[in-house]
Amino acid sequence: MSAARPDAATAPPFRHDWQRHEIETLLTQPFNDLLFQAQGVHRRHFDPNAVQISTLLSIKTGACPEDCKYCPQSGHYNTGLEREKLMQVEAVLEEARKALAVGASRFCMGAAWKNPRARDMPYVLEMVRGVRAMGLETCMTLGMLTRDQAEALEDAGLDYYNHNLDTSPEYYGEIITTRTYADRLETLDHVRQAGMKICSGGILGMGESVNDRAGLLQQLANLPVHPESVPINMLIRIEGTPLAHIEDLDPLEFVRTIAVARILMPASHVRLAAGRELMSDETQALAFFAGANSIFYGERLLTAQNPQANHDQRLFKRLGLYPEPRHDVDDATHEAVLNDQIRKAQVAAMTTDAAAH
Ligand code: SAM
Ligand code: DTB
Ligand code: SF4
Questions:
Q1: Which ligand 1 atom is at minimum distance from the Cα of 231?
Q2: pTM given for the model
Q3: How far apart are CA 58 and CA 300, in angstroms?
């Protein structure tokens, strides 16, 4: 279990029957009422000042056959991105070592695929084994999976599979035409049946309505088990994609959505995911208050920029936040050793950079 707190035991049971209108009511209530409620839920389930840290690596970049209108990696749009084939296993492990050294507890590997091919799987499985052996949690996002592929990943030790629903079922067809919402749900089902944890969320700022945001959260919260990790991305507008010039989303609408995700999925890690680079520190502080407790750390997401590490270190210092240690290792001694290693690496990274500023 994640950083669960003792008072979680007295919290009401989790719901999986949310109605769209109930979620819209939550999203549109006065901001202070919403944030107060969300922070209360957050404190019942988590240490309010601990933030889980993930680092991302693109293991196969660009030329994706899907037409996701937001994505720099879709082969349907000319975004000037240079395509790169699947990385060598050793090169991926080298990046994972760097992530561990700067204090990440989870390493997420992403590939611009519609789905992995059979011949890619041995390499991908080797990456999972190697990263896990370092004591990092493992996460992958490779597109659609068959049941067999999900089981093979689970056997190799993959902890999380990321597969986002992105938006409401009604708005989905405006954003992606090369796969359906049902395809997405099917992969999530394969991941869950195989015994892995689910990381699933969406993107805001794609021209969707409040009702669409409610629809996305409804789909996520009404899954048979809440996704353990819920990334909420702010659209990064990429020149060359159809959404390059879409209107800005009000940052307070973004914060509201984080708060409602926290209320609907009380024990899930809600990630303040892509788009932090263009957010003010104050918006991020509000998002943490609203219940976000996970970030991507490091200067690059998959292909787009993320805040500089030293900027995040200063922000954590200003807000009194600290990285959350991992909690899901079965054996207590192993967990203590890993947490000690991670904590030392985190403290070393934080103090070195803080001293330089
Ligand atoms: N191809 C796989 C898939 O789509 O599942 C994995 C990689 S894909 C890049 C992972 C997620 O990144 C997408 O589901 C989307 O939510 C997010 N993403 C992609 N481009 C983005 C952008 N420009 N701004 C914000 N989020 C983005
Ligand atoms: C998620 O929800 N956001 C991450 C991760 N899951 C794989 C990806 C964000 C990608 C942003 C655009 C880019 O870096 O190419
Ligand atoms: Fe391909 Fe994933 Fe980008 Fe869609 S979001 S174009 S599936 S890499």
A1: 16
A2: 0.89
A3: 9
